[in-house]
Amino acid sequence: MRYLRLIRLFAEASAQNELAYQANFWISLLHSTLNTGTGVLGLVVLFGQIETVHGWDFPSTLALLGVYLTLSAVRGLFIGPSLDRLAGMDGEVWSGRFDFTLLRPVDGQFFASFRYWQPLALLDLAMGLGVLGLAIDRLGQGFSLAHLFTFGLAMAAALVILYAILLIFTALIFWSPGFLFTWVFDAFFQMARYPVGLYPGWLRLALTWIVPVGLMTTVPAQALTGGLSAWMLLGSLGLAACLLLGASALFRLGLRRYASASS
Amino acid sequence: MNPRGGWALIQSTWLSWLQYRSFFFLLAFMWMIPPLIYLLVWSTAAGGQTVGGLSRGEFVAYYLTLILVNQLTYAQTNWTVGDLIREGRMNTLLLRPLAPLYDTLASELAGKIVYMIFIIPAVALLALLLKPEWHATWGTGLLFVPTLLLAWALRFFWGYWLALLAFWSTRADGLLALQDALIFLLAGMVAPVALLPGPMQSAAILLPFRYMIGFPVEVLTGQLSAGELWLGFAAQVVWLLVALTLSAAVWRGGIRRYAAIGG
Fold it and tell me: A209: Cβ–Cβ under 8 A, 6 or more apart, which residues?
């Protein structure tokens, strides 16, 4: 309960901070529209030339794009901005300001993950959900409660996987301060815009097992198209749990390594 | 005009950029990813056959060239010019006996060299892995050089006049984001221009964006007839003149308005 109350306070404080700059609203709206528009038009161009690739047609790939946009919106809402304060450009570990963060009477990992919110990311979230809705309509096979349930589970697993991987990439900063690990992750994450089936075999394996970004979007999209096996769903839930435990352990290990920057 | 001072500035900028090479290598890596994604998606889509008249190997050749051309023509300084104006750092540059354009060009050239140190080996490695089908001859190679130079100049000055709008509005970088989205869709990034659906293709041929990236790539991969080639050449020159005129006009108007914020 205390943690929920803290999250509300963090969100409120950051919202007051961010919403002071009102022109940012229009710029963010422009950015989210461009991001969504280029994504959808990119698919229109691709499927203007071909019908299906490896079983993926236009509606199912659109569903996958919706999943991708929704996931990146949640990332932009709090995971990204919070972790960036730690390990981003000019981050706290680099500058030594992390000392003051550590002194706060709250769990380090919790604080590092939830402390800063970007309310304008809700625009991205709305667009992502819009694309999902459009895709469900295009798929045209109805949408039952069971569908919704599996999709919800798959999305939850994907979110946990996303968070865990980001935490791992953030924790690496303790070993090599100054290198922007999360940017490397960004490069891989962009590949999740397309189904793993559209990549050559070696990359498909890497995106499923080494940096499981492909899994993050492919599994929820398959839950919508009905191509998801129970094993895949269980597997991705299991992977989410393992990654979360592993990432937390790594983060703690990193914290113990942190020896402050001279200041 | 002060070419000797300009050259000294270029040298010093280059040396200072080399100090941060791991950061710039990371940037180059990130800019390589979007074209790489489309390389993989289109070459998988082509499989053993052809899509829109291009085979798998031809897609690989097209996109590998595009990665190089995109990096060579990308004017990242356009993003920093706006910051210089907003934060008042333009003051120091204006006091020098040298047009601030030299400073921008110096960073531009320094960046190109640092990025090429990363991109050329990366593209060579990808070429070994993915086996492109080049149809380049000495003739197309010879034509490629002037089109590439024109493409760079066009992309640079087109972004430059947009960036200089920061003299009037602090959020002019929204326009740069719009330009990036249009480049993604129309410059041959999401698909070779010949594969775009009807209205998008006409827009691509009329607007300046294709002539910043896609056109030189098409020249080198030998996709164009002689007529298309001369027409594209003419379009490059005309759009470059437009961009130069706009840059000069916006610079002259802006510098009169400039009130040196901060400093």
Answer: none
Q: What total number of domains does chain B contain?
A: 1
Query: Residues A206, B49: contact at Cβ < 8 Å?
Result: no
Q: Is residue B23 part of a domain?
A: yes
Q: Name the residue range of residue B170's domain.
A: 3-257
ipTM of the complex: 0.83
Q: Which domain holds residue A18?
A: 2-257
Q: What is the largest CA-CA distance in chain B?
A: 61
Q: How many domains does chain A have?
A: 1
Residue A262 is predicted with a pLDDT of 56
Q: Of A4, A180, A160, A136, nearest to A71 (Cα)?
A: A160
Q: Nearest 5°: CA angle at A44, between A38 and A47?
A: 140
Characterize B132-161 residue by residue with b for buried, 16 or more Cβ atoms within 10 angstroms of its Cβ, and e for exposed. bebeeeeebeebbeebbebbbbbbbbbbbb
In a domain, B109, yes or no: yes
Chain A and chain B share a number of CB contacts under 8 A equal to 82
- B26, two tokens: 């990371």
Residues of B with CB under 8 A from a CB of A: 22-23, 26, 29-30, 33-34, 37, 40-45, 51-52, 170-171, 174, 177-178, 181, 184-185, 190-191, 195-197, 200
Measured between alpha carbons, how far is A79 from A116 in angstroms, rounded to an integer?
A: 8
Contact residues, chain A, for B40 at CB < 8 Å: 198-200, 203
Question: Within an 8 Å CB–CB cutoff, is residue A175 touching chain B?
Answer: no
At A155, the pLDDT band (50, 70, 90 cuts) reads: very high
Judge if pTM exceeds 0.80: yes
pLDDT block averages, 10 residues each, chain B of length 263: 72 72 80 88 84 86 92 82 77 75 80 84 88 81 90 91 83 80 89 88 91 91 85 93 92 80 52
Minimal CA separation from B37 to chain A, in Å: 6
CB environment B200-223: b (16+ within 10 A), e (fewer): bbebbbebbbbbbbbbbbbbbbeb
Q: Which of A232, A261, A226, A24 is nearest to A122 (CA)?
A: A24
What residues contact A176, with CB distance under 8 A and at least 6 apart? none
Q: DSSP per residue over B173-215, as a string?
A: HHHHHHHHHHHHHHSSSSS-GGGS-HHHHHHHHHSSGGGGTHH
- The encoded tokens of residue B30 equal 């990130």
Tell whether A21 lies on the interface with B, counting CB pairs under 8 A. no
Would you say residue B250 lies in a domain? Answer: yes
Residues B220/B141, Cβ–Cβ less than 8 Å: yes
B135 located within any domain: yes
